[in-house]
Structure formats: C-alpha cells, structure tokens
Predict the structure.
Amino acid sequence: MRNFVAANAAIGSFIIGVLFIVAGIGAIWTPYDPLGISFRDKLVPPSPGHWLGTDEFGRDVVSRLMAGAATSVWISVTTVVIAVTIGILIGVTSGYSRGWFDRIVMSLNDALLAFPGILLALGLLAVLGANKYGIIVALGIAYAPSVARVVRGTVLSIREREFIAASRVVGNSEAYTMMRHVLPNCLAPLTVLTTSMFGWVLLAESSLSFLGLGVPPPAPTWGNMLASARPYIGQAVWLAVLPGLCISITLLGINLLGDALRDRLDPRMRDRT
Amino acid sequence: MFRRVALLALGMLVVTSPTFGQTLRVALNQDIRSSEPGVNRDGNTDVVMTNVVEGLVSYDKGGAVGPLLAASYQISPDGKAYTFKLRKSVRFHNGNPLTAADVVWNFDRYMNPKTSWYCLNDFNGTNGTKVVSYSAPDADTFVLQIDKPDALFLDSMARTDCGGLAIIDKASLKPDGSWDKPIGTGPFIFGVWKHGQSVQFDAYKDYVSPPGKERDGFIGKKAPLVDHVVFMAIPDGATVKAGLESGEIDVAVVPESDVKELRANKNLAVEVGTTPVRNAFILQTRDPVLRDVRVRQALAISLDYKQIVDAVTEGLGRVNNSPVFDTSGFFGDVEKKGFEYNPDKARELLKEAGYKGQQITVHANKRSTVPSFPMTVLAQQMWQAVGLNVNIEVLDWPTQLSKYGTGGYMMQSTSYSPRFDVASGFEQISGDKDKQPRKVWDNPDALTMIDKAMETLDPVVRQPIFDKLHTMLLNDVPIILTHNRVACMAHSAKVEGVEPTSFSYGMWGVTKKD
Amino acid sequence: MEKNLLSVDSLSVRVTGIGLDVVKNVGFTVQAGEIVGIVGESGSGKTLAARAAMGLLPPGIATTGGSIKFDGEEIIGIAPRRLRQLRGSRIGMVFQEPMTSLNPSMLLGHQLDEGLALHRRLPEAKRREMILDMLQRVGMDQPERALGAYPHEFSGGMRQRIMLASVMLLRPALLIADEPTTALDAVVQRDVLELMVGLTREEGTAVLLISHDLGMVARYCDRIIVMCRGEIVEQGKSDELLARPKHPYTRKLLGAMPKRGADRSFPKEEQPIVSIRNLVVEYPGRQKLFKRDPAHRALHGIDLDIAPKQVVAVVGSSGSGKTTLGQVVAGLVKATAGEVRFDGAPIGRDQKAYWDYRMNCQMIFQDPYSSLDPRQTIGQIVGEPLRHVRDMGTAAARQRVVEVLEEVKLGADYANRFPHQLSGGQRQRAAIARAIVRRPRFVIADEAVSALDVTVRAQILDLFTELQNRHGFSCLFISHDLGVVEQVADRVIVMDKGRIVEEGDRSTIFDAPQHPFTRKLLSAVPALQAAPGGGVRLLWRLDAPEGDPLSSVQKPANRPA
Amino acid sequence: MLRFILARIAMALPTLLIVTVSVFLLIRMVPGDPAALMLGDNADPASIAMLHAKLGLDKPLPTQFAVWFGNLLTGDLGSSIASGQQVLPLVWSRFLISAQVVVAAVLLACAAAVPAGVFAAWRQNGKLDIGCVSIATLLMSIPTFWLGLLLLLFLGLKLRWLPVVGYVGIAEDPWRGTLYLIMPILTLFLHEMGVILRMARASTLEVMRLDYITHARAKGLTEGAVLWRHAFKNSFGPTWTLIGLVLGNLLGGVAVVETVFTIPGIGRLLVDAIFGRDYPVIQGCMLMVALVYVVVNLLVDLCYPLFDPRVTIE
C-alpha cells in the first residue's frame, strides 16, 4: 500500500507536471496556429501532418489542445486563487468573530451554495462581458463559499486549541493571533481543498462551455472543443474523444495528487490526539 | 392455452402502443412554443402548425400568394375592398362546416388586443394599413375593407408569422375564452402534445384538398398520407443524427455538414433546397469606424464569398449578395451580380479611409440552426488578411438580439427570417434608425423607393426598383448578405414527398413505406 | 506445579511496513485465577504483547516468532474459526477508552447479548436474566433501563462497568484489561478496579492487567511484569518487586513516583499577589428557537488568595470547576461576577492594572501537542511573549530565549526546531520556557503534567520546582493528580461542583482531611513510602468512606505490603 | 421533532429569500428581452410595448417583484412566457423526471458503492482495496458529459442496444421508458459510485481503528458480523451526509446529462428558460432547486439519528 500511495502520488505529480508544462508551452508556442483555419484540411483524421487530426475548420487539434490547456490551466489557477482569497477572508473573519456577524455571513454563504453555478455564471458573464474574465469571476464567486465553509470550520477548531489561548495569555491582540496563529494553521487543509478545487473548476469550466455558457469560441478550451465536436461525433470521433480524454486524465492526476497530499497532511492535522 | 397467451400478448401490445398505422417521426430542434397560431410562436411553430390550420390565402412555393380556404378573391378597383369566396364543403376537424361567419369570428378574435395577436399592429393601423371593417354577406362570402390601397395586404394575410390568419373553429377556445387547442381545417388533427417532448398530429381523413395537381408550397394538392405525424423536440444535433441512423427518426432538418455522411447511408436520403432566409453580416453605419463607407466597402470586398458559402454549406449553397432570395422571380441578372472579391482594392480603400487597425468587433452566436459562428470565423481570417483587426464576440442569442434591437453593435452575424415578398424583404432591413434602431439601412432614397415598390405588385414596375435598390445596397454596404439558407431534409429511404424548403415541416403529401 | 493458563514464550511482534520490532523475545505466564500486571511507559510494547495473546494485533503489525499457548493450545497460526470460539468465551478483553470501546449506535442490550448469544446456547429469556443479573453486580441502578439505552447516555465510569459486565457475562478464564481506568477520574478509577478484581475473584478468572501506573498495578496484582522498549526487564511477585527492584529501569520507575516535597513557610502578613473574591462564572444555555436553556453555573463564588512565591494547588474531579477557575484567572474566560485583584488592584476595571497583570501572569497548558503552534519554531514560540516587553531589542530577546531554553534544559539548538520534531516532554519544557520567558510573577499551570509518561512527569516536576525556587513566581497549580499535588503544592484547595470544599496547608489536607469529599479523593490514590534497599512500600491513605456504593461488593483481601 | 422541522424551515427561509431576490435581479440584469425574443426581427417598438404590457414587464422592478412575490404567497408562480404553461405544474413535472433519474442513479450507486467501500476498507491495502480505490478514482475523474457521450456512441450507435433519441415517461410505457433511462442513469451511477465508494471506504477506515471494533472481534464475532453490525452502521453517517449533498446538487444540476440524453428534466428546463429569458420559469426553477436543496438537507439531518443515536433532534 505504501508503494501504491507513493506510485499514485508520483503518477499524480507527473500528470499535473506534464499539464503545466504543456500549458506553458501552449501559451507561447504551438505546432500550428490554434485559430488558423484551412478549408482543405477539414476533419483530417490523425496523420503524420496532424498528429491528432484537424477539426471542422481545419484547425490542428494538437495545437488547439495545447492552447486549450493553457487557457484551462490559466482559468483554473486564477479562479482558485480568487475563490481561495475571498473564501479565506470571509471564513477567517466569520469563524474568528462568531456571533451575529458569523450568522449573517454564513446564511449568505449558504444561499450562494444553494445557487446553481450555471445561473450565476450566466448572469455574471452577461454583466462582465462574454470572455474568460467573466468565467473566472463567476466561478471564483461560485466556489468561494465552499472555501469559506472549510476555512471557517478549520478556524473554529483551531480556535479551541491551546496555542490560541496561549497567544491570548501572552497579551497578543486578536488580529495578531488571527494572522499569526490561526491563518497559517488553516493552510494545510486548504492545500488539499485547493487541489481538489482546481479539478472542480476545470470540470465546471468544461461543463459550462459544453452547455454553451463558458469561454466563447473561437478561443479553444477543452470544454468548448468537446462541445463543438459533438455534431461530428460520427464522422470524426477523435474530435470528441481527445478533449474528454485530456479532461479525464487531468482530473485523475488532480485526484491522485489530492489523495497523496491528504495522506501527507492529515497525520499532522491529527497530531493533537 | 396458447391462444390465451397470444391474446394476452396482443392485449399488451395494445396497451403499450396506443397508435396504430403509419407514424412519421419528425425531429424538431425545439418544441413548438404553443398551439395558438400567430399568438405565441416562433419559426418552427409557424410551419408545424400549417399542418393543422389554414388561412384564407397562403404562399405557393415561389412565395406568391394564392387562395387556400378561399376559392377565389377579388380586389376592388380602389384597392380598398377585398371579397373572398370560401371553398365549399370544407369542414373543421370537429365536423363543423366552415362558413363566412367563422371567418368574421376569427377576425374579431385577432383584432381584439386581448388576444395579443403577433401581427395586430400591422392590421390596426399602428404600422400602416388598417382594417376598417369586415363582414359576411352570405355563408360563403367574406368582405373586408382597409383604409388605403396596399399591394402587400394579401401577403400580410399569408405571413406565416401572423399564423397565416388561421381560421379555427370556436371550439378551439374553452368556455371561459381561454385557449384550448386548435380545431382547424388542415390535413392533420392536433393530437397529444407532451410539452417539451413531442406533439402528435393525426390524419384528418375527411380533408378536402385545395385544387391543384401537385403540392405547391402551402397550397396546391394537399392530403394526409400517413396516419400520424409526431414532431419530437431534440435540441441536440448529434442525437438527431443518431436517431436518423438508428431509424428512430424519419425526417429531420440537418446541418449541411451532415449531408455527405447521411447520403452515404443507404437507408437515408437527403433533399436540398434553398429558402428565403438570408444570412448576413450587418454593420452599424453610425459607428465611428464603420461610419466611413470605404471601410464598409473594404469589409465587403475582402471576403471570398464562394469559399465562405462553400465552406459553411458544404458546397450546397450559392452566393447571393442580394436581399432578393435566389428562387424569387425577381432574382435576375442584376441581383446575381454581387460584391467583387478584391483584397488589394480593400487594402487601398482602408488606406484611403485612414484605417489604423481600430478593433472591429463582430457579434456571433452558436445557435445550431444558423451559420452565424462558422461564417464569422471564416470571414475573420479573410478580414485579417487585408489588415482589418476583427475580433469575434460570441453571445447567447437573446443578448445578441437585444443588442440588435438597440443598434448597440459594430457588426453582427445574423440571419433574417423569410419574407416572400421582395419589397417586404427590403423593408425588413431598412428604415429610420432614429425611430427604429434595429433597422440597418437608412438611406432616404432607398426608403422612398421601397415605399414605391410596396404600392404595386406589377413586376414591370417593381423589377427596375429592386435592381436599383440592389445596386445601391452594394455601394452603401450597411449589410453584407452572403447566401440564402440551404434547407437540408434528411429522411429515411422509406419516406417520400419531403420538400426541403421553408415549407419543410408541412407533412401532407409525405408517404412512408413499411 | 500449577498449570499455566497462558504461557507466552519468546514472542516477537513487528511492524511489517517498516520492519520495526516492537516486542522482542518476550516470555511470561499467567496461571488460572491469577492477577498479573504488565507495567511500562508508552511504546514499551505492553499492549501489543497482550493483544497478540488474543490474535488481535492491528493491521500492519504481526507476530514474527515465539509461541503463545492458551490452556495448552497454540494461538499463533490457529484457525480463525477456533480463535473466534476462544475469544469472548474463554478470553475477554476490556479497553482503555470507555468513550470508544462500546458501539455508539447499538443498544446496550444488544451489545451485551451479542457475545452471549454467540457462545452460549441459551434461550433468550435466560440470557436476559443473566445480563440483568450481571448489570446489577457491576452496580447499575436500573439494569432494565440500561438495556434499551445507548452508550452515550452513560458516564465514562458507568460505561467501563458495562464493558466489564459484557466481558464477565461469559465467565472467561482470562481477562485482558488494557489500561482499563486510565481515562477515568481517580475516585471512579478505584471503584472500577475494585469491582473488576472482585468480580474476577468470584468467577476465578485470571487477569492480565496492563497499565503505566505502577502504584495501581502493585495494589491489585499478584505478580508484576515490567516492560521497557519491547522487552521484559524484570518480573516477580508484586511486594518483592516493589521492595527489592533489581533492574535499574524498575528503580527509575519507582523513583518517579511523586513524593512529598519539603514544607515551606510564608509570612502571613504579606499582601497576596493575586486575590480572588466571590468569583462566579455562568455559561449561558444554548439558544433554542424560542427560548434559552437555563444557564450553567460553573463557579459559585470562589474566594482565594495566593501569596508571593507560593504554589497553590487546586484539586478536584472532572467537572469540579478547577479548569474554569484557571481560565478565569488567566483572563481567558470572563467572570460573571466577582473580581480578581493583582497586587491589590482590580484588573477588571483598570486598563493599566490589567496590562500589568497580563504581563505578569502566564500559563502552562495541559496538552503540549496542542499548546504549541505547529507552524512556528520553538524559538518563535518561546520568544513571542517578548514582543510585549518594552525596551527589549531583537538581540536581547534572542539572548533571553537561548537563556530560557537552557534553563528548561532544551539547549539553544532547539530554537530552530518545530514542535512535531520534539517529544512530549520536550514540548512541555518548551511550553514552560514560553511561560517564564518574560519572568512573570505568577504562573497558572493547568494539568501541566497530566499528559506525560511517569518518568517524564517526574523530570518535568523537578524542573518546575527548580524554576519556581529560582525565580520565585507564585503558582496556581491545577491538577487532578493528588500525588503530583503533594509533591509541589504549598497550599491545597479542594473543589467540588464549583465550590471550594476544603483548603489548607499541604500537610493539613493530606494528613488530616476534614471534608468527606477530600477523604474520598485521598482514599482513591495509593502512596508509596520509601523502603530500605531502594524499594518502596505501598500504602493506602484512607479506607473507602462510609456509604460507598461499592461497599456491597466483596473487596479483595488487603495483602500486607 | 416537529419543532426541529419548523425551526429548520424558519432558518431556511432567509436563504430562500436571498436566492429568490438575487435570481430575480440577476436574470433581469442579463441583456435580452423575452418580448424581443418572441418578436424576432419583427420587433417594432409598438409590438414590444404591447407584449411588455401583457407580460407585466413594463412596470418598475420593485413592483414586478412585489407582484410575483405576492402571487408566490398564494401558490401561483405565474405562467411561462414561452409556452404559457403554469410554472408550478411545469416545474414540478420536470422535476419529477429529473428526480427519477437522479434518485435511481444515486440509489444504485449507494447499493454498489457502499458495500464495495466497506469491503475495501476491511481489506485495507489488499488487492481488492487497491482495485476499488483505483476504479473509483478513475470513475470520479471522468466528466459526466464525456462519459455520457461515450456511452451514447458505444451503446447507442455502435451496439444499437439502447435508443438514443427522445424520452418516454415510465408511466406511459414502462418498457420503453426504462430503456430511455438506462444510459443517463448509468452515466450518473458510474460517476457517483466513484465518489460514494471513496467516502464509504474512508469513513469505514476511521471506524475500523476504534476500540469497539476490536471489542467486537474480542467477543469472537465473525468478520462479517464485525463489519456489518459494528463498522458499517457507525461509518455510514458521513457517507449519508455526502449522499444528501450529492442528491441535493444533482436534483438541481443535471442539466449536462439531460442535455446529452435529451431528457426533459428540470436542469434542461432551466437552461432552456435561461436561453429563452423565460423569467417566470427561471424563477420557478431556481426556487424549486433551492427548496429541494433545503428539503434534502433537512431529510438527511432527520435521518442522521438512525445511524448515530448520539445526534438528537430537538
């Protein structure tokens, strides 16, 4: 099992590492122009010229997958950063202050949780303009409540630990205690959450794109590639299979990595017993 | 014992499949909006409902108006009085005979604002012609007065979006006056409607066909040749294709891109035809950049239309830069001449206009029924090739439409709904932008000419006007029309009689072999 | 020669994943009806050695050699079916943690009946009768009601009795008791042990009692086995082993038992450094939808004076309010009424007095695993209180941290380590360093040594006494452990249910207790008296007071020590 | 009990109110006008004004909300702009269709995943465990829309085992109705099975460490009895909460699967209503979704004491 865990961690890190490298390359260089159309090369099956074939506009699928990786990774990372930042702010203040402030913030939070992301995304997209920034803000706001919940829970449990009392006895102010002792100790569970959330956001972006609410074409993301491949599923199977495969493999990597992180971080979380 | 089992099995069959006989399954990309013609509608609903209801007049396949429930009609010399003679022995689906009194009752209903008839403003004087009075002098005669001569009045009566002024039986309403379901005179009876899923029509065995030897648009020979037609709402194109291949769908409108693949399947056939739907890029002539006609001209002549149309229609469509649809009688040599593809000249024009790479944003949408998105993607590359900095913004359709309605765009890739009358087709895009921001062409000369064309139906008067308008439009470039929609009807090889036009969902005259 | 009921021979147990031997070549025997104790500190392998006898090693840990014979039958490699027949029926087991050793989601009646139904073919009515009878014998007031209840409805002591009942129902030949009372209060601890010993004597069941508490084991066991780091270092008859320990480790264990320190006297007229007047703490009841639960009063008007340089101990069982008292005095909990004065100034009203007090009052917490921020280095943790010392530069602060770390015998190089890299004792040293780094005049120690192993506890107590003598801070020492209190306290305050029931000098309280509650507390704890030859003698301070619910249960014969 | 339910509902009311108000505002902030959509390129100002008046969209926003909210209190959610159907029966009937898919999938997933998870935990680190965890992680990583597409391609088009088009209610035609539901249920089932299996395994592992499991073994119980009577029931709490969450989320958000398999459920109704700017339907759907979320959570909490008697409902 030890080997299994280690192997999983290695596979997970490898997949995510490759993803980031591909995304990094895809952001600056791709074999073909991911937006460059070519009438003659429509729906070319995988071949030496186009390793993974071309799509309905004759655009090279490898290039689009790479550029899509760049967009997807960029969106996911930025979204997670936004969600985590907002979530931490809300979670820590509400968890640490408790009382009526906590109650109000948390009922707002619950309302947001009960709100389907798709509607929120559409609304914000329309207000912010249909581009990837809209998606980022919308998903960021949609996922911040989950972070806030976890952070608040962690804060509540950390508050009860004796080193917080110790800090107060020393004469430290509440704000200092929060910044210096509470916040750093929230980070371990947050790391695990952040990893999983990276996967959720990737999936959410793909789902939204699939429903036609995501990053608008022609800019490629895996989700909208998959969505626009649907009509060609009979003629050009690779178009539908490849982006889905990319999403699945990435999610697998994230899940494996998340598990490994949880295994690594949990014993320390439990060291109070 | 064995017989009892067999009987039982038969009994189960009866329970599980309530419909007997020939059933034609037709895919719709969206459920019909309502069963109330001309009130709660969209393009699909209009045509689907022509299976059930009929008006006094309607279109033939060339877009000319002809009698449907009327046997004939006469227009008074002053052009203000219309007299319709009704066809004899026409009965509603519930067996009631059609009389002129029914027509009066229907007009009462449509002209009542409470009905919220879609075309009320085109008949009550708000947007032009006003119906002054109507009456039924005898059971077969209906007389109607309008306030001024209007060459297009019959066309308005035939308009499918107005419900074709469908004549329905009083029993279509519930006792409280609210809508129940349409009891019309069409070849099919409105059957079970499962909202969001499917609507079933059953053959009207006692249907009396209008005169004619063969099918002719919405008129001509009409007869229900299958027992049932089920229109199934399937929004997803891939699913539709799968359904055609598996035999679960008999008839469907398919995108051009599927034609080749489907034709390769020997169980399927595809009919192709063109419709008066016009696909276009529209340009905001009041935009700081596009105000300069040279920039607009450059945009127009930097496109290789043949390549774009071939690409988006898979070689099935024809380039048409004119608002006159290419199957119209008015589509002549002048109209055939469109924009001249000349990238070098486009670059020159841009230079003259002092264009310095200002960004031009084109709104497009990804609705599967229109080529808005692929057209824009293809055009973008050609525009970029001559140095136009064009950016695509994909919007959802309601958003694009609301920007269209307020004129809040630089360019949009859009499609115009069919107008069988060519003058109406011009009127659709032209008008005073101050009053109606959605209008794209506000050249005052053009507006005067369009008004003149609407006063008559005489081709000798009209043709030169349309020719002139077409030429002016090519010069002004408020709109870049590319081609008329290609209708591709895929159907099972067992099915015959499908017509791939605007009338495609009219299922009379269609047969299905076992 | 008596027949061996259990005989373990050169047993080795290994953590297979990392190849660590946790029990090495251990051999011992248990005879029928005998009570044998295994004593050792955490990590000594005592629990694993005993569990191996039932084939109940946790996953990832396995026997690698030796033999275990129960009633002549080899346990290692036995068929699972046969092993299951032995378990419960012939060998029973009682666990340490009463909170987790009963299934929380199963009715007690079912849990008690489960083993009985499995091993004894008896009609249901008969089984029920047996269960009720056994519950009565373990001192349940309403056995009938207990059958239809869930474990969480009972206190820890009660649960341990139920546990005992469920095991003894089957009259096993051997009972393995793994720290059966460690998690309980001293008073309850004694009750449960007496009950266990009484019951097993009656049924003739042999007991293998595993404990870290040498005093307790010596009190009840015929023979004692001492384990250290997986090996048996010494075994023998209880009184002999106590009186004449041979192995140095045994001697070290005995030496670590708390002993009364030297008496100190304090001038009466001096102004108390901290004085508490009429202190009341109420916790508001939970807010329900339309009303509030009644408030819970944790402290009922406490008065208390602490003289300079004096160590005042507060003792009491759990729920007595002693921890709340410490928290109020430390300023962690707000008092509902009453006041705390520092140097005569009430700290509640005067900002300056409060800050003065804050600077001079520090606290040592119970759990060294929770009281140190896991994300900071020991240096940061210890140095943190110096932030508030005016006119102390960074260099001076660093110097002070090093000084203090050396004082608590950690050494300067510990400053860069993180808490999880330290052992429990080292962490508690760091916690003490943090408490004294600002040279406070008053320290609150809340169960400061309760979580530590016996030998470590002795070292920490010595360190504490040494520091207290050197720096002369006053101390409020909160503990449930009378032995520890006897070692360090100058004055003792006995609390029960939020009130002070008795207070006085150490010798008065320990030698001439007045209040029945104090007497009961004392009676539960054994004391050791140094005996010639480096050994000790075991003494019970007092007999169980009258009216003890256990007096009906037959008590073991009091063997002379 | 009743009091607890009332209290929970009282607590949920602000949440519902916030959802209601924000949906109302948000959807109206989005550009697009239902009247313009109905009129298409024939949208002259007079006709739009007429339609607005008919739909009540000409009034100021607070008035519109007051009217809608007032009707809501009388149980009237208005009628769809697009189809004219009453919103309440429309939303309810679509919800039932979604619920039938979701509940079936989740029940099946539980039936398969919970025992598998418990067994995997029992055989921790064994081959069975590693196999289960690997499969679960893999299943969890496949997005439902892709999984659905692959199933459609394989089971529907290649093998022709199952129909790919349309939907028939179970009530009208049990046999064909079932055939249509197999693929969507299978898709959701596979995905949720991964999630639930991991949770069941993790929480069983937590419990397996506790003394009462050793105690049960020490009584001589068979491994089966230990596992089911002692481990399973105590470990089911967290899994149960997760199942509640999954149910609550799925019931409001199976739009993707419904789109792939053309099932007229509430998710697709919502998406269609959004694209059609059908305000009353959007509001009705959202209210329903939020309500379902609240009710499912309430039911989960009410059932919790069955698995853990320490949790009481008061």
Remarks:
- DSSP finds nine helices and no strands in chain A.
- Chain A has one domain: 2-36+43-272.
